[in-house]
Amino acid sequence: MKFTKNIAVLLFLLISSVALAQVKFDSKVSKSKLGVNERLRVDFTMNEDGDNFNPPSFSNFTVIGGPNQSVSNSWVNGVRTYNKTYSYFLAPKKRGTFTIGQATIEIKGETYKTTPKKIEVTAAVDIPKDPNDPNYIASKNIHLVAEVSNANPYLNEAITVLYRIYISPEIAADNLNEIDTPRYNDFWSNNLDAQNEKVTNTQYKGEDYRTLLYKKVVLYPQKTGKLEIEPLSLNVSLRVPTNRRDIFGSRLMARVNRTVSAGKRVITVKPLPEEGKPVDFTGAVGDFNLDVSASKTELDATESLQVKVNVKGKGNLKLFKLPKISLPSSLEVYEPEHSEKVRTNLSGMSGSISDSYTVVPQFKGKYPIPSISFSYFDLKTKSYKRLSSEEIVINVLNGPASTTASTDNSAVANVNKQAVVANSDQFSFIKTKSGFQSMTTSHFFKTGTFWSLLLLPFLAIPLAIIIRKKKASRDADVHGNRIRKADRLAKKYLSNAKKSLGQKEAFYIALEKALHNYLKAKLHIETSDFSKDKFISLLKGKQVEDNVITDFIGIIENCELARYTPIDNVTMQEDYDKAAKTISLIDKQAR
Fold first, then answer.
1. What does each of the 591 residues of the chain score in pLDDT, given as a tens digit?
2. What is the DSSP letter of 249?
3. What b/e sequence results for 408-431 when a residue is b if at least 16 CB atoms lie within 10 Å of its CB, and e otherwise?
């Protein structure tokens, strides 16, 4: 009997030890039913330390705090008690019945999961007005307000939204986290820097508060009618005073996490008036100036110039298109390069935008750039305004003549002709008296000039013999003569390009002309026959090496591109040296 009792005690101790050694991983919620304006606490607790903790998604809640981790480890009568907890503070996003899913963790190589919890979220409930409740105190002493500069703007008129947070001097804020950022649908938006804003003292609803400008946004409405500005929500960590005091008599502070929202704002956007709206109106709203300029008005054919259309002022500069220029067909026009120098502050956008066109005339003549107009809606006068530029005339001095250009020039010549006015003193009387004077006779014979001219042929004979011998020696040097001839040819054709070194456009125009003129003389082709394929075939036919042909074509391509791209003096010198070397090589190799 005694033996049986000992067996029973031993089994009890064994079962107890196994039970104590069992791993537990549970989830607990502060309440299973709450209002949409209340907060929920969820704790995930384990009795053994683990790794790779993975919480549920909380998809129907906003995490306003956590995870906060706490650990408890104690020994009582030789028995160890260990607890580790991950805590989350949640705010429901809407009403309904939701499930907080399973959390997982790995303990001693095994994966453990919690049991899902169902939570019912009801409509907002009245929070007890307990002056001793830290949450109630926090709700009454912190506010987030969205200040809108204009609730009834025009379409594309700038408005500003300032988000200010007001905190009572009785409580302290430790941390601000943005948990719900407005998306500003149907607006063009730009966030301004608010990091250097300072806390100031002010009044809010008749009471003293400290305020901070938390966020600044400039908005341009892109639709008419009623538009919503979504609310901004912040999670604020606060320290709230309680009725408890420490041993020195100072009030103890309770830490509270509070979610504050600026609330939804609605603005009514007015459409721009239809009366007086120009046909070419592209949506510009504000106050602007128009300027159209050309980098030069006199140049030669195949040279380039820049025509710049610039609009500057204050308004929605990034939200409309600039007017296009209209040019004669004889002017080759490239796609414009768009540039913006726009800054944004609380009053909206200001600065300038421009389109820069590269224009290359092909023929000699005078070409007008017609006046262009730009219309915008002026917010001050609440009316449409039109700006027009002056006509610009481009005079192409040198180049091939076109039919249109010849006609224009002859017309200009006829206009410039003036009638010849006869001079009343155009015939003079014949003079009857001369002014002749007598001259003394001098003799050239036996003068110094006579003897110099007499001896000069005898002195020139030995000099002519020396020059003839050197010429014969030089003529015998066939290879050297070819090199010298090629070098002279290169210098001849590249002389104008060398004079223009340092002036990008003039240099590459002269270099390209020199290369074309050289090919015309070397290959006996006309300007109309110019094509890269024909160059290559003719040079190959004259047994010029492939690498030399490639270098020559590459230089021509560089000339075409370099006039419209930034080039430094070093690159120009390299292109000049390469062109001179290539011309010399072609002249030596061509047969």
1. 555 555 655 555 555 444 445 888 899 998 889 888 788 889 999 888 888 889 998 888 888 777 888 887 777 776 778 888 888 988 888 888 999 999 999 888 888 999 999 999 888 776 666 666 777 888 888 999 999 999 999 999 999 999 999 999 888 888 888 877 888 989 999 999 988 889 999 999 888 999 999 999 999 999 999 999 988 888 888 888 877 777 776 778 888 888 888 888 999 999 999 999 999 999 999 999 999 999 999 999 888 999 999 999 999 999 999 999 988 888 889 999 999 999 999 999 999 999 999 999 988 989 999 999 999 999 999 999 999 999 999 999 987 876 554 444 443 334 344 444 444 444 444 555 666 665 555 666 667 787 778 778 877 888 888 888 777 776 666 555 555 555 565 666 777 777 777 777 788 888 888 887 777 777 776 545 556 777 788 888 888 888 888 888 888 877 877 766 667 777 788 888 888 888 888 877 777
2. S
3. eeeeeeeeeeeeeeeeeeeeeeee
Same CATH fold, 478-589 and 134-269?
Answer: no
DSSP 270: B
Inter-axis angle of helices 478-499 and 569-589, to 10 degrees? 150
Measured distance CA(66)–CA(98) in Å, rounded = 20
User: Topology of domain 289-396, per CATH?
Assistant: Immunoglobulin-like (2.60.40)
Residue 486's contacts (CB-CB under 8 Å, 6 or more residues apart) are 583, 584, 585, 587, 588
Kindly compute the dihedral angle of the four CA atoms of residues 308, 314, 320, 324, in this order, to the nearest 10 degrees. -20
How is domain 20-122 classified at the CATH fold level?
Answer: Immunoglobulin-like (2.60.40)
What residue ranges do the domains of the chain occupy?
Answer: 20-122, 134-269, 289-396, 478-589
Which structure tokens are listed for 50? 């683990």
Report the C-alpha dihedral over residues 491, 493, 498, 500, rounded to 10 degrees.
170
Q: C-alpha distances in angstroms, 346 versus 13, 149, 194? A: 76, 10, 11
117-122 and 33-35 beta bridge pairing: parallel
Q: Please compute, for residue 325, the number of CA atoms within 13 A of its CA located in the half-sphere on the CB side.
A: 32
Judge contact between 52 and 99, C-beta under 8 A.
no
CA proximity to 483, closest of 356, 589, 330 = 589
Angle at 330 between CA 327 and CA 332, to 5 degrees: 70
User: Which architecture does CATH list for 478-589?
Assistant: Up-down Bundle (1.20)
Pair 106, 51: CB distance under 8 Å: yes
Helices and strands in the chain: count of H runs, count of E runs: 9, 30
Cα separation, 190 vs 219, in Å, equals 7
3-state SS, residue 409: helix
Cα–Cα distance list, 352 to 63, 193, 391, 525 (Å): 45, 22, 22, 50
Cβ atoms of residues 259 and 235 within 8 Å = yes
The token pair at 136 is 């109630």
User: Looking at domain 134-269, does it have CATH number 2.60.40?
Assistant: yes
